[in-house]
Design brief:
The chain contains 1 helix and 4 strands. The radius of gyration is 20 Å and the shape is flat. 34% of the residues lie in helices and 31% in strands.
Length: 77
């Protein structure tokens, strides 16, 4: 999804996949990076979100939106 070249020559990647995995070993680096992986099962939620959880999520979203808008104001100065 995104790639960032760092000053020391390393590259940082943001990827999106179908499931979480753990890298067991690297198989090849050229022409592309290949690895042997083990799938990590997603944790099961014990119960559906309740009113308290939904309120906390709303609160975090609102705080994040406020933080982002403050950052935009600082960039404009």
């Amino acid at each position: 999804m995104r790639m960032l070249k760092l000053p020391d020559g390393r590259i940082r990647l943001l990827v999106q996949g179908l499931s979480r995995v753990k890298i067991d070993s690297f198989l090849a680096e050229s022409p592309s990076l290949r690895a042997k992986v083990t799938r990590i099962p997603e944790p099961e939620t014990a119960q559906p979100p309740n009113e308290e959880t939904e309120a906390l999520v709303r609160s975090v979203k609102e705080a994040l939106e406020k933080t982002v808008s403050l950052g935009k104001q600082n960039l404009a100065e």
